[in-house]
Design a protein that fits this description.
It is a single chain. By secondary structure, the protein is of the alpha+beta class. Helices cover 27% and strands 35% of the residues. Strands 1, 2, 3, 4, 5, 6, 7, 8, 9, 10, 11, 12 and 13 form a 13-stranded mixed sheet that branches. Strands 16-15-14-17-18 form a five-stranded mixed sheet. A hairpin with a 2-residue loop joins strand 15 and strand 16 (329-336). The two termini are 32 Å apart.
C-alpha cells in the first residue's frame, strides 16, 4: 500500500531517508556527511512516499527566515528532493511538492527557495530564477599589489567554529545579507560548522580592537577559495584584500563566488586578466501571497491597482487582487477568484515573484511576455517595488 506521509525523527525514518539521499545524489558515506545530514534532517519538515512501509521518495522543507530590506519573512528552503530511479515518472515528487507547499501556505510562509537540478522542472511548481552569483577566477601572477592606506589594526586567523560570535553581528549588519539573504539562527551557524570543517576565517580588527570585516576561505593544493567576504569600510576592505594576495606564492588560482550578481572589476588595475562569470544559483516563489504583500516594504505609496494572479499549484493565490498603499499602510484584498478580463496587470506567480523581489523590472517582464499590463499601471507600480537584485550566500 502506498502512502504520502510526514516522516519522523526516529532512527528508522532517518536511516531510510539518508540511504535515499546517498543513492540519488551519489554521495560517499562519511562521519561528517552523516553528522550534517542528521542535523539538517532534525531541523526540517520531512515528507515521504512509502510503499509497504519502504521509503520510495522524499524531500525536506527547512523552516527558515530571510531578511528582505529589513522585513523578516518566513521562508522554507526545499532540499534533498529524491526518488529511487525505479519509482521515477509516477508523479511522486509532484505530490510531495504540492503537499509541502500547501502546508507552507497554511502556516503563512511567505517565500520558498530551492537550488534546482532543473529550472524547467521546478517552474511547474511556481518557482522561478531569483538569485545569481558571480564567479571570479584569478591566477596568482595576475593578483594586484594592494596598498593599505591606514595600517592601524590587525588581521587575526580563527577556526570557523570559534569565530561565530564575532562573525554573526557583521553578517547580520551587512547590506548584501539584507537583500533576501538568510537570517542565520544559532542552529544554522552550528550546521555550517558541522558541514564545513575545512573553512577558515580571517578577521580584521581596527585600532580599537573592533571587528570591521571578515574573510571565510578554504583551500586545496592549487586553489585559494573565498567562501565569503565582508568588509564594512574601505580600510577593512584593503586589509582583507591584502591578506588574500599575501598567499600569492602558495596557490596558483584564487576563486571567489560572490552572492552579488554583478561583476565589479573596476577595483582591479588590469581587469582583462580576471575570469568573471554570472551563474544561476537559486529559484524562489511566493507561497502565501497575502502574507508576502502585506509585509512588503514598498518604496512609495501606490494608488489602487488591479493585479490578476495565476498560480497553478496554490489556488488560494489565484484571482483578482486590489493593491493600494497609503501612508505606508498596505491594503491588499482579493475581489474575485477567477482571473482574466480587462485587468491592469496580469502576473503568473513566477513573474510576480521576480518583480517583487527585484530580480526583474516590470518593463523587462512586459518586453519578454511574462507580464501583460497597461502602461500606466506598469509605471505606477514600478516606482514602488524594490529594484536591487536579491542576494543569498547560503545553500541548502
Amino acid at each position: 500500500m502506498e502512502e504520502l506521509t510526514r516522516l519522523t525523527d526516529d532512527k528508522e525514518d532517518l536511516r531510510d531517508f539518508y540511504a535515499l539521499y546517498l543513492y540519488c545524489f551519489k554521495g560517499c558515506d562519511s562521519k561528517v556527511r552523516q553528522n550534517y545530514f542528521d542535523y539538517r534532517y532534525s531541523h526540517s519538515l520531512k515528507y515521504g512516499v512509502k510503499q509497504n512501509e519502504k521509503l520510495k521518495s522524499g524531500l525536506l522543507s527547512i523552516p527558515l527566515e530571510v531578511n528582505f530590506h529589513d522585513v523578516n519573512y518566513k521562508m522554507n528552503g526545499i532540499c534533498d528532493v529524491a526518488t529511487y530511479p525505479e519509482h521515477s515518472g509516477h508523479g511522486e515528487i509532484s505530490r510531495l511538492m504540492k503537499f509541502a507547499l500547501k502546508e507552507m501556505y497554511d502556516d503563512k510562509v511567505a517565500l520558498s527557495y530551492l537550488a534546482p537540478f532543473s529550472y524547467k522542472f521546478y517552474r511547474k511548481f511556481g518557482y522561478e530564477a531569483a538569485f545569481d552569483h558571480c564567479h571570479y577566477l584569478v591566477e596568482n601572477r595576475d593578483l594586484p599589489k594592494i596598498k593599505v592606506e591606514d595600517e592601524t589594526g590587525t588581521i587575526e586567523r580563527f577556526e570557523f567554529g570559534k569565530a561565530i560570535t564575532i562573525l554573526k553581528p557583521l553578517y547580520d549588519e551587512s547590506v548584501k545579507n539584507r537583500l533576501g539573504g538568510l537570517i542565520r539562527s544559532v542552529w544554522w551557524w552550528n550546521y555550517l560548522t558541522i558541514k564545513h570543517q575545512d573553512w577558515k576565517v580571517a578577521i580584521y580588527f581596527d585600532g580599537a580592537i573592533k571587528a570591521r570585516g571578515y574573510l571565510i576561505y578554504s583551500d586545496d593544493e592549487k586553489t585559494f577559495r573565498i567562501q565569503d567576504f565582508c568588509s564594512t569600510d574601505w580600510t577593512s576592505f584593503q586589509h582583507l584584500t591584502r591578506f588574500i594576495t599575501q598567499h600569492q606564492s602558495m596557490y596558483q588560482f584564487f576563486e571567489y563566488e560572490s552572492s552579488c550578481p554583478i561583476a565589479y572589476l573596476d577595483i582591479l588595475p588590469e581587469v582583462s586578466t580576471v575570469q568573471a562569470v554570472i551563474r544561476p544559483y537559486m529559484m524562489a516563489r511566493i507561497v502565501n501571497l497575502s502574507a508576502f504583500v502585506m509585509q512588503y516594504p514598498f518604496l512609495k505609496d501606490v494608488e489602487s491597482v488591479e493585479l490578476s494572479v495565476n498560480d497553478n499549484i496554490l489556488p488560494e493565490n489565484n484571482g483578482i487582487w486590489i493593491l493600494s498603499v497609503k501612508n505606508g499602510e498596505v491594503d491588499f484584498k482579493k475581489i474575485r477568484n477567477e482571473t482574466g478580463g480587462d485587468i491592469e496587470l496580469e502576473f503568473s506567480i513566477q513573474s510576480l515573484t521576480q518583480a517583487f523581489l527585484g530580480y526583474c523590472s516590470l518593463d523587462y517582464l512586459v518586453r519578454t511576455g511574462k507580464l501583460r499590463g497597461k502602461k500606466a499601471a506598469v509605471n505606477k507600480l514600478s516606482k514602488s517595488l524594490m529594484d536591487k537584485k536579491p542576494q543569498i550566500q547560503d545553500y541548502f
